[in-house]
Amino acid sequence: MRPRVVLILAAAVLVLTGVLLIPTASARLTGTSGADASAPATIAPPAPAPLTLAAGPVDVQIDGFLSWALLDRATGNITGSDNVTATNSAESMIKIWFAADVLRLATESGAEPDQVLLDAASAAIRDSDDPATNMLYRLAGGPASLRRMIEMCGLTETRPVIPPDATVVWWSYTEISARDAVRLGECVADGTAAGPRWTQWVLDEMAQVRGTTARQDQLPTRGGGRWGIIDGLPDEIVENGSVGMKNGWTLIHADGLWHLNCLATADEWVLAVLMRYPGGHGLDYGANVCRNVTSQLVVPAPGAALKIPQPLVEG
Question: What is the pTM of this model?
Answer without folding.
Answer: 0.83
